[in-house]
Design brief:
- The complex is a heterodimer of chains A (120) and B (106).
- Chain A has 120 residues and is mainly β.
- Chain A has strands at residues 3-7, 11-12, 18-25, 34-40, 47-53, 58-60, 68-73, 78-83, 92-102, 104-110, 114-118.
- In chain A, the strands form two sheets. In chain A, strands 2, 4, 5, 6, 9, 10 and 11 form a seven-stranded mixed β-sheet that branches. Chain A has a four-stranded antiparallel β-sheet with strand order 1-3-8-7, with no helix packed on it.
- Chain A is globular, with a radius of gyration of 13 Å.
- Chain A starts with a strand and ends with a strand.
- The model of chain A has no long low-confidence stretch (mean pLDDT 96).
- Chain B has 106 residues and is an all-beta fold.
- In chain B, 0% of the residues lie in helices and 46% in strands.
- In chain B, the strands form two sheets. In chain B, strands 1, 3, 4, 7, 8 and 9 form a six-stranded mixed β-sheet that branches. A three-stranded antiparallel β-sheet of chain B has the order 2-6-5, with no helix packed on it.
- In chain B, strand 7 (83-91) and strand 8 (94-97) form a beta hairpin.
- Classes of the chains: A mainly beta (120), B mainly beta (106).
- Chain A binds chain B through residues 36, 45-48, 51, 59, 61-63, 95, 99-100, 103-108, 110-113, and chain B through 1, 30-33, 35, 42-45, 48-50, 54, 86, 88-90, 93-100.
Chain lengths: 120, 106
């Protein structure tokens, strides 16, 4: 059974960089599939941030692209998110997920999510 | 940018059929999927590739997609189905989610 777990600081100051890591268990990232970050502001809807493949190829949401970096560490079976120059608008629950890219795109396994608050 | 439009809320009586729509230009030419999210929980995939159910999802969940509208149908709705539902598609290499629909089982 594939399991994902987000980790990282729950509080980030404005203008700083948000950094999160997703640890995958039950499946080796180096074996394939794509892996994604999605966020959800409190009381609001879901927003895709970006997706990465084991090779390091990335796809980002155009609205966040200039501030986002997603990377992968296959030796640790982890992938990570960095979001720079954060503001209060970046306060959200951040989810990592497995991204199936075949006919259509969808997310079949999700982590429990981690709340990141941007505040001084 | 591509936008998916869902009704903010839908109400249904227990045992009845609930239909939740998701609309966008030529959505029927793309694949749509649906997620269920209960309070405090992660989203769960309930329909993918328009009509397919993942393992473990009850048969009462079904999907369709034609023209400009994708529809999630829940037959014989149960109290446990009360949740937020999100549609999702992709366009121009960008994943897009609908705004979500709160399903209330009265």
């Amino acid at each position: 059974q594939v399991q994902l777990q987000e980790s990282g600081p729950g509080l980030v100051k404005p203008s700083e960089t948000l950094s999160l890591t997703c640890t995958v268990s039950g499946y080796s990232i180096s074996s394939g599939y794509y892996w994604a970050w999605i966020r959800q502001p409190p009381g609001k809807g879901l927003k895709w941030i970006g997706t990465i493949y084991r090779s390091g190829s990335t796809y980002y949401n155009p609205s966040l692209k200039r501030r986002v970096t997603i990377s992968v560490d296959t030796s640790k079976n982890q992938f990570s998110l960095k979001l720079s120059s954060v503001t209060a608008a970046d306060t959200a629950v951040y989810y990592c997920a497995r991204n199936i890219i075949t006919s259509g795109r969808y997310f079949d396994y999700w982590g429990p999510g981690t709340l990141v608050t941007v505040s001084s | 940018s591509y936008e998916l439009t869902q009704p903010p809320s839908v109400s249904v009586s227990p045992g009845q059929t609930a239909s939740i729509t998701c609309s966008a230009g030529e959505l029927g030419n793309k694949y749509a999927c649906w997620y269920q999210q209960k309070p405090g929980q992660s989203p769960v995939l309930v329909i993918y590739q328009d009509t397919k159910r993942p393992s473990g999802i009850p048969e009462r969940f079904s999907g369709s997609n034609s023209g400009n509208t994708a529809t999630l149908t829940i037959s014989g709705t149960q109290a446990m189905d009360e949740a937020d539902y999100y549609c999702q598609a992709w366009d121009s290499s960008t994943v897009v989610f609908g705004g979500g629909t709160k399903l209330t089982v009265l």
